[in-house]
Structure formats: C-alpha cells, structure tokens
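Reviewers of the previous submission asked for a worked example of the structure-prediction workflow described in the proposal, so we include one complete record here. The input consisted solely of the amino acid sequence. No template or homolog information was supplied to the procedure at any stage.
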Amino acid sequence: MKKSDFYYDLPEELIAQHPAEPRNASRMMAVDRDTGAVSHHHFYDLGSLLRPGDLLVLNDSRVLPARLYGEKEGTGSFVEFLLLREHGDKRWEIICRPGKKCKPGARFSFGGGRLQAEVLSVQEDGNRIVQFSCEGNFYTALEDVGQMPLPPYITEKLQDKERYQTVYSRELGSAAAPTAGLHFTKEMLAALRESGVGIAYVTLHVGLGTFRPVKEENILDHHMHTEHFLLPEETAEAILRTKAQGGRVIAVGTTSCRTLESAAQRCEGALHACEGDTDIFIYPGYTFRVIDGLITNFHLPESTLIMLVSAFMGYEHTMEAYRIAVQERYRFFSFGDSMAILPGLDA
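From that input alone, the workflow returned the following structure tokens.
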C-alpha cells in the first residue's frame, strides 16, 4: 500500500489544543470491528460497551519532563534538548537544537546549573549521546527543570503537567504520553473493575518516533523506531485466563497493542512474561495474535498509527470512520476524542 492511501483532509480547528475536563467527558466513537457500523458516545459510556470477563490492557509508562531549555557553557547561547532514551547512568540519547552547537565535547547548563550535560558523540541519524551530571537524584533535577514534551501540533501551553499523564502512570521513561489512556479517571477504572471488567498493565516507553512522518511512498520501505517494552507475568496470565473463559482482550492504545503483539511474536507457544525492544510495524495484512479490541485516539494522516488501526478493523472501515469523525467534528490527536473498536457491537 502507498502512504497516500492513508491521507484524509483534517481542518486545523479540529486538532485538540487542550484535554477534556473532566477526563472522561471526551467523545467516543464506537466502531464494530466486523461491520464498520458507527455509533456515538462519551468516554464515560465505555462500560456499556464492555462485558464482564473482558480485559483492558493499559500502558503504565509515565512521561518524562523531557524538554530542556538551557545555555552553552562559555557562550551563553540558547539550546534545547529533547530526551529520547536512557543509555546508562545519566547517559541519554537526545535531539538537540540548534544542532551546530552540539558537537562532541560541548557542555551545557540547565536550570541555572541544576543539570549539566556534555555531548559525547553524534549518531548517524543526528541524535546525540550526552552525559548528564547533577547534585542528587537525576530524575528529581529533571522534574525541577524539565518541561512536558508536547507534540508539535499542540501550540497552547499546558497549565497542569499531570494532564499529559494517565492517572495510572508509574513507570517513568516515555518521551510522549500513551494518549488513549488519558480519558480514564480513577473512579471510572474502579467502576469497571466492580462491573467485572479486568484491568492489567504492560509498559512500553513511548519514543518520539511515534510523531515522525512516514517519508517513503511505499510503506514497506518505512523503518520503524525502536521502543522498550515489558509484559509482566501477571498480565500474561490474565490474558490467557480471559481467552480461556471467552472474554475479550482489549488494548488501550496503540502502544499496548504493539507490546502485546510484539510479545506474542517472541513467545513460543503460550504467552508468557517477556521484555525487550520492539520495532514492530503493523499495517493492513497483519494477523493479530492477542487483541480482540482496541481503544485509541484519532491519528495523523499517513501515520503508522492510522495504518495500525486500518490493519485491525480494515482499511475501508477505518477511512470511513475518519470521514465521519471529521464530519461530526470530533477532536483529533493527543488531547482529542476516542475511538473504541470492538467486535459484536452491531449484534
């Protein structure tokens, strides 16, 4: 398939600039995975679409305040760092701007010296490896001086950093939020458990590659970014138990989906705990091994994420659902509305 097959026209005013208040007041489009039938709800209606014995799998990764503004030592000139991935004790892979100032040996200061960094090397893709230093705990210092790495299409300032975190986030390490989970409240999760819906967790630390555009027209030529994931034993057991009892395994977000499908590829026989790096690319024609349903936001045109959705519920159903979403003026992208793709909704 071609990249242009996944294009749709989106008016700029439909790109959400701030999250819904309260979280679960966002709109939700429900789509029958088999027929493509569409119905319109709010996220707080999700429980009415689920059944006792279903299992929601959520990504508990927590977003780092990964954007740093500082100055180059010796010149005082401005620099911006974006943390991508940890490579050891206070050693990180980063994107820096302007790049010409970030040569090996260059040193930088952030937060009036609260954090300091030295560039160690330049990668083939232009990313830098830097060594940070600070007094005390690195993550405490980062929390003090860092800012949330909001996507470039969000231009309004975020007043409360926790609104770019899920209420169940706990494993620090993402450069972007697993945004499908932003709609849940603690009260809603408790109510779902009470109704017999299972809740389980995986961890996938979201990289900024999730925002990088597909440049090749032939999507098979696209090289996916790599992210680190963890499938705990208790989650693997919950999935196997759900399947055995006839329940549905529903991934909350493309990151949870990619974790589960990556784990299934690695496991020989029954699904079991595993951890590692994944660059899985899911596009139409892919055979899903684990998930029966998917809760996700509305994604950018021509992105790998809309390709994943198309793989799950079919290309025609996906593009028609997006056409309806634009027509009905749903809110799009990270702070936007939600889509619940489930089998049997049209029954």
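The mean pLDDT is 95. We consider this example representative of the routine output the project will generate in years two and three.
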